[in-house]
């Protein structure tokens, strides 16, 4: 397992450390997605394409909070 740190900029951005980019084979312009599990974030590279990688992304909102209510709650959380 690779453990690395990155500093959040004032624009809320980070630079992925070289060892992480190399391990995931991420290149400039590649798409990644972030999955939040509790208080952890998991970064996934999208080698197989966005559609496949995002399948069922957010499905727990539909199961646990119920469709439209989940969307409204998420919008409210954005401020």
Q: What is this structure's SSE topology?
A:
Blueprint: H1 18-24, E1 32-37, E2 40-45, H2 50-54, H3 59-64, H4 68-78
Antiparallel strand pairs: 1-2
Plain-language structure description:
- The chain is 37% helix and 15% strand.
- It has 4 helices and 2 strands, in the order αββααα.
- It has a two-stranded antiparallel ribbon with strand order 1-2.
- 0% of the residues are buried.
Task: Give descriptors for this structure.
alpha+beta, 79 residues, two-stranded antiparallel ribbon
Task: Give a brief outline of the structure.
With 79 residues, the protein is of the alpha+beta class.
- What is the first-to-last residue Cα distance? 36 Å
Number of helices: 4
Which structural category fits the helices and strands? alpha+beta
How much strand content do the residues show?
15-25%
Radius of gyration, rounded?
Answer: 15 Å
Order of helices and strands: HEEHHH
Outline, from the CA principal axes?
globular
- How much helical structure, as a percent, in the residues? 25-40%
What is the subunit organization of this protein?
single chain
Would you tell me the overall average pLDDT? 81
Low-confidence regions: none
Task: Report the count of strand segments.
Answer: 2
Q: Give the strand line-up of the largest sheet.
A: 1-2
Described by strand count, sense and barrel closure, the largest sheet is: 2 strands, antiparallel
